[in-house]
# Entry
Amino acid sequence: MGARRGARGESRLIRYLILGSWALFCLAPVLWFLSIGLRPRVEIISPQPIYVPHLSLEAWHMIWEDWPMARYLRNSVLAIFGSVLIDLVLAIPAAYSLSRYRYRGRDDIGFYILSTRMMAPAIVAVPIFFLFRSAGLLDTIWALMIVYAAINLSLVTWIIRSYMLDIPKELEDAARTDGASDMRILVEIIIPAIIPGIITASVIAMIFAINEFLFTLLIASTPNAYTLSVALANFTGGSDGLIYNAIALVAFLAFVPVFLVVVAIQRHLSRGLTMGAVKG
Amino acid sequence: MPKAGTEEASDLDPSARGVAKAAPQQPARTRFRRRNRRLKRWFPYLLVAPAVIYLMLITLYPGVFAITQSFYKVKFGPWRPIGFANYARLLGDYQFLGALWNTFLIGSISLALQCVIALTLAFHTYRDPWIRGWRIVFLVPMLFMPSAVAFLYKLAFLDARVFSDILIRLGLIEHNLAIQSSTWLSRAVLILADVWQWTPFLFIIFVAALQGQDEEVEEAARLDGASWFQIFWNISLPMMRPVIVVALTLRAIDITTMFANVFIITKGGPAFGTETISYFIYRTGFRSFDFGYASAASVVMLILTVIVAQTVVKRAFVSARS
# Structure
């Protein structure tokens, strides 16, 4: 018995060694990057890396005073929330149709929606660029909104569909015998029952929209429509090269709200990330 | 002809039957009733139509556009039809073939590493009392914007050379690593950045799957003297198979479309050694303005995508559901 407990203690030690080193690997770069955001520019790139910098709010003043940070933020927020709104309006009825009715072609339609998730942005980048150029939408947040909504529509639909499949059929049947129309059932019974699913889908869509880089780079050619993700690439001071402390600080500004929201929906995260295929 | 709208055929509905019976006396209501029934049949299609139309506009239209454009020379000035010349050029273009190879190489190494690490971490945490804490800590890298992560790695490995400095301090190397001039080191940086940021994606999913595992089966196996590895290999892994397939498929899709890291960290260099297919399309289209050629590359990639979607992904999602 004693020997066995000893072996167990040893295996526990190894286990925490593995987990601890991965945690260190996750967090050390993050803390170092945070220190980059809070140090003056002269201490970023030097012949010998500086590990204990002088604290400085130089970057904080720079992003607000030298760059239109407020506009980048506004662009990001509008494009992201707009796109999530478009997604919900389109995805909730679609998910309802895919989960509650049986009709010819349903599975093919569902799979078509799913398959758009597999399309590499680069494949459609050239045509989308021409499409928006001829529509006069280049360099506007409308174009970003449309593209983000398209990127996320498949996953929002599939996540919501998976939550709708969980609702017991009896609930609907009872309402239907009471004479409620399909539309009323959707609005008054189904939607209230899948609020967690709607929130999960919105959060995941939000993260992917914040992350989007290629389309934003092509569509937003001036600070007019820059989002945070692409604005980072433009924190350059001409011959001085990249302004890393501003980049790092903006990265953390975007990180904090995402982190808080994700911690709040932790339980639903695995389901959201697999588009509903895995129930958490 | 599609089958009737709802799963509950409407003639089970007592009020609807009443209307149908009363129909001969009330022609106006019959017409209404017929229209209503037709509406009912098309109702599910109407619900799903807006989403499908939206996606078609943004995927099908570009697809057709790209196919058309791929048969033209589009480089400044008007489009000039050139038949299959763009495709012929692709087949002999070492940069294009190299980009395919790099995408495959970087993607598969990165995916394999992520899968093994995520499985290891998940298996060691899912019954841990501090699982919530581990999960939040491990999740952190995934919640940064990929462009920010790219800059972090560019600074640490190339510009500030912190990585080299640490290795020198540890006495592992003597001089700064010449990462920018080494193809393999540049690839390693891309792989490392991807592993760092996206292993959590798989970890979160694997932990959720393992937590759903029957505790009694596990306990029984443990009482029978099975080692943790036997439990993992014989019980957990078979149970997780569909989940692993779905998660890896989603991850594989995102890895093959890797762009921001290449754009920011390596710009495809040295000597195109880290150029991925997405970056190749971007470069030929938006740097050389050779749009016809870029479209031809897009079409090749589209065909590969459709093949993968129809085989692997369809099966993965169907098996995960059942």
About this structure: Chain B touches chain A through 103 residues (CB under 8 Å).
